[in-house]
Amino acid sequence: MARAVLHIGTEKTGTTTLQKHLLLNDAALAKGRWRYPYLGGGPAHTALAVCAADSDADVFDLDGLSGRVPGEERSAFVARIDAALSAEVRAHPKARFLLSTEHAHSRLVSDHAVDRLKTMLKRHFSTVDVIVYLRRWDRAAVAAHATAVVNGAVEAFDFADYLGKPYLDYSSLLDRWARAFGDKRLRVAVFDRAELKGGSIVDDFVHRLRLPALAPVGDTNVSPPSATIELIRRINPQLSLQSPRTAAMVREALATDAPRLLTRTPMLPSRTAARRFVRLHKRQAEIVRQRFLPDRATVFDDDFGSYPKEEAAFILSPDVLAATMAAALSGVVERSRMIAGELHYYRARMHLDHGRPALARDEIDSALLAAPGDAAHHHVSALVDIALGRVDQAKHAIDVAIAIDPDNMAHHAVAARIIGHAPGLQPVAEVASKPQWPNKLPSKRSRRS
């Protein structure tokens, strides 16, 4: 049977970055006989947490992330994921499998839930090692609050709200997973940029598991600074009156643009409050250290320099507030235009695929109007012009695409076919019948966020 490593988070320890990185490096992992399967819903294996949860109420908000179809019974979903794992193991019999879901930390909070997941995995894997990263309690609480606010929460931050919560009860978390899989199968690491290999969760994970070298990747899903979070929190009551889609777009724009304008606004929790909160976990820290990290003098560092000495009021000058909201409003408009452009772009491709170049022309013109700086839109415009017999216009469109995105070889291939300077390549007529779709680059906005 195959072997597996299950990464269970914890939440807010770079899990999204790691999961996207593993999913996009399939070929590199295969060289080392590792496999990171796609189980539906997204790059994380959220489906495993949904399958193992004690009830649907514990995972009611995870259906979209897990790939569960609306109305699908739990038993049917479990059977489908179980069959997907079985198919993966049959297709890759010599691979070692990587599985990752931070929701195993936050949603599987009983022995029954963890045992349920263990039973499912043991049907496919002879051994399962569990790896978990722990983040210092105060930092984890601040990051969890940021996520809640970005999702619409309106409550002010208070360390007291996180006292005694299973979410931060690391000793119980580790004990629960050790009872199911055994102490020797549980690998515990500390999430601290100063300690991580290369300062990166990805580099550290690769190093610990001795994975093949993987292509570099930027961090994703990083919490905005606390001043930005506080601004969003104060706006959330008004956003609750808007549609969920509109509210999410405004929050995304603020999370992207506000940090560069709120650089002088201090963090809200004070250094004293953060120290006090960590001290309340002193006994828990020693239990974790003695059992799982005996080689360390302490589990976490004692650096609280990122907090202000005293709690400060959140005050924004009218000018800063106006600039921040103007930037956010511009971001919402830009995002709306980008979404509209995407819709018209894919409609143009569909019409071209079905031999309807005139309709494709209308759609790609709308895409260009919404997002004129997108090279892929100009690429498809060239293909449409080719299908309509407008070679000069096609040449101009592909030249614009190359100017915007000079490293995209798909643009150069179409240009070569149009001007006939590439021996052995298809003539223009065949380019129209067999379009070469461009690599769709993310927008500048999505790359920043």
Give me the secondary-structure topology:
Elements lengths: L1 E6 L7 H10 L1 H6 L2 E2 L10 H7 L10 H4 L7 H18 L4 E5 L2 H4 L4 H12 L2 E10 L2 H14 L19 H12 L4 E5 L10 H9 L16 H14 L4 H14 L13 H9 L2 H11 L25 H36 L3 H14 L4 H13 L3 H14 L4 H11 L8 H6 L10 H5 L1
Parallel strand pairs: 1-3, 1-4, 2-3, 4-5
Helix pairs in contact: 3-5, 3-7, 7-9, 8-11, 11-12, 12-15, 15-16, 15-17, 16-17, 17-18, 18-19
Describe this structure in words.
The protein has a five-stranded parallel sheet. Helix 15 (318-353) packs antiparallel against helix 16 (357-370) and helix 15 packs parallel to helix 17. Mean pLDDT is 89; it is low at 421-425 and 442-449. It is globular. The chain has 449 residues and is an alpha/beta fold. Among the domains are: 2-135 and 191-222; 333-443, Tetratricopeptide repeat domain (Serine Threonine Protein Phosphatase 5, Tetratricopeptide repeat, Alpha Horseshoe). The two termini are 41 Å apart. The protein contains 21 helices and five strands. The protein has helices at residues 15-24, 26-31, 46-52, 63-66, 74-91, 103-106, 111-122, 137-150, 170-181, 201-209, 226-239, 244-257, 271-279, 282-292, 318-353, 357-370, 375-387, 391-404, 409-419, 428-433, 444-448, and strands at 2-7, 34-35, 96-100, 125-134, 186-190.
